[in-house]
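Student: I would love a firmer grasp of how sequence relates to backbone shape in proteins. Thank you; the sequence and its tokens follow:
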Amino acid sequence: MRDLDELASDLSFTSAATGGDRTVTFLPEPERAERKYVIISADDHIVEPPDTFEGRIPAKYADRAPRVVTTEDGGERWQYDGQQFPNVGFNAVVGRPVSEYGFEPARFDEMRRGAWDIHARVADMDLNGIYASVNFPSFLPGFAGQRLQLSTQDEGLALASVRAWNDWHHEVWAGEYPDRIIPCQLPWLLDPQLGAQMIRENAERGFKAVTFSEAPDKLGLPSIHSGHWDPFLAACAETGTVVNLHIGSSGSSPSTSDDAPPDVVGVLFFAYAMNAAVDWLYSMAPVRFPDLKICLSEGGIGWVAGLLDRLDHMLSYHDMYGTWTSELTPAEVLTRNFWYCAVEDPSAFVQRERIGIGNILLESDYPHCDSTWPRTQEVVDREIGWLPSDDVERIAWRNAAELYRHPVPAHIAADPDAF
């Protein structure tokens, strides 16, 4: 496994980052994409703006609360409880040439404004033909909110910061465009009982999802097999809150030897989604909580059919292992409780029936280097435009609308140009 914080701060990790020239080039403004499809993106990201926490942290924590500071070399960093973090815009590189993708943005003005400004974000969604979007946190909180909680010894400050981020997301990011942004909260990781209470509170004010770690044990927390998280998962199942397991939310990524080239990490990045699916499946959490909804974000779908085959094969060894206790088979539980997000998986859609036509979502991954922005409509047309219209509709938006309980108005479903 490779530590993502180390990779993010290693300026020699990619060849693009070794040249020393930090010139930032913005490509010409793209034209508005032709909208052939209604699309809900199940995975995009927020670069938290500098004012995210302002006015939302109790005064006693104000001097240690997250804030953006200017460095001696003119860069910008987040400072939190006396520590500085190297990336204000982790992988926020859309709108720039691929040759510059190795340079992490050091300032907000080195990113496309839609990365951190909600009004510009919605404008970029309009350019790209994305009707609605689930947005995950970025480098400061960590993909599962872990950095706000595990990088300070002050649990009160951590709790105030998590609540502040969720308040900001509710009031500003999703709150100003409730039809376009599907609310996704940070979890409280340090106490599953309080975490469950927060899930219920946030469900009452409209949150539809929570971002959680694919492997909490990699963060030094109890594993998903321990039963420790059952109160939290019970609250998610009870409220219909989707548990999103985003690739990299454990702070690590799959790799091989330590001296393997960076391509190896990039190619294998999807593999953690498969690892997480098996881990969570055999934790029996989706058996104990049959209404639990688990979405594997940014992990692709190409591996799912093969995993289902392997799960069926392993039934012949059930008497040897003896750990599976459900009347349903592992493959049946996987199909019932798990959803998957396709970025660019052209070969996988021929297996859509085996994967489960109702289990496939799309994503654009804005503003990261994997993003299909501003050509998502074009990519979707190429990859699924040849499918039956009912399958296209289900994959492009209906599955996500049902999973996240975010209905698409009838006039937009009938005419993608209507939003």
